[in-house]
Amino acid sequence: MKTSRINLVIGALLLALFLLLLFLFQVRQTEVAVVTTFGKATRPIVEPGLYTKWPWPVQKVTKLDKRMQTLEGKFEETLTADGRNLLVMVFAGWRIADPALFYSRFNGSIPEAERSLENILRTAKRAAVSRHPLGHFISATAGDLKFDDIEKEILSAAQNDAKSQGLEVQLARIKRVGLPESVTEKVFDRMRAERSKEVERLRAEGQEEAIKIKSAADLERDRLLADADAQATRIRGEGDAQAAKAFAVFQQNPDLAAFILKLNSLEATLKERATLILDPRTPPFDLLVNPDSSKPAIPSTK
Fold first, then answer.
1. Domain hosting residue 98, numbered range
2. In this predicted model, what pLDDT tens digit does every residue of 239-273 receive, in sequence order?
């Protein structure tokens, strides 16, 4: 009897759980959902939580991933503003913005949405590339490149077209840029010509700067030489004046002049310790010997 009651309770619980599953459903943090009534989208759900519905076939719940997804376009030729063929590949990041519109437009199919978005990106890419010359994509000068502006134009155009399909394009980037083989050599020739002009310009600027530096150095050299000559002339004049004064004094007493010259020579010779073997009569060492002790070694200044 007890076993029968337990089985009955378990059966009732299972039946209640089954009924709850028929009338309840859960939407997770990473999902959005669309409730359809007899195949027609009637209630979009964008917030996570527990919701109720009528059981199938009255209502059906389609859950969709609301996280950002990526799409990579094809690497194909596009014409630039100056009539050059350019290979460009664009990738985008997108998500479902309007679940009801997305479901009605693509019947909840992600691959169908990606095919449509690929066409949107192709159109936006061609429109943006056609407004820019080749030099904004490929150039030896970094300042000529305009990738940021071009990507913004692609993103803006793609967002406008995708919004009407329940999609939100959150980013668009140029992944790859190339040149068809037929125009590669022409572009390289143009880049080499641009580099040659730049080299010539830098060389001319360098030569001009070198001339300025050399002129400044020559001017400074001439100034220093002139200052040195003037200083030498002044010192020479002062020396000549002092020599003239000394010569006038020495003319009055030649013996005293000769004696002073010998003393200066003797002082310079014996400035450091030295051993000399010389004839004592050799000037100026003859001052060290007085042959006549009765006479003074120092001449008279009379």
1. 69-179
2. 888 777 777 766 666 766 677 777 777 666 666 66
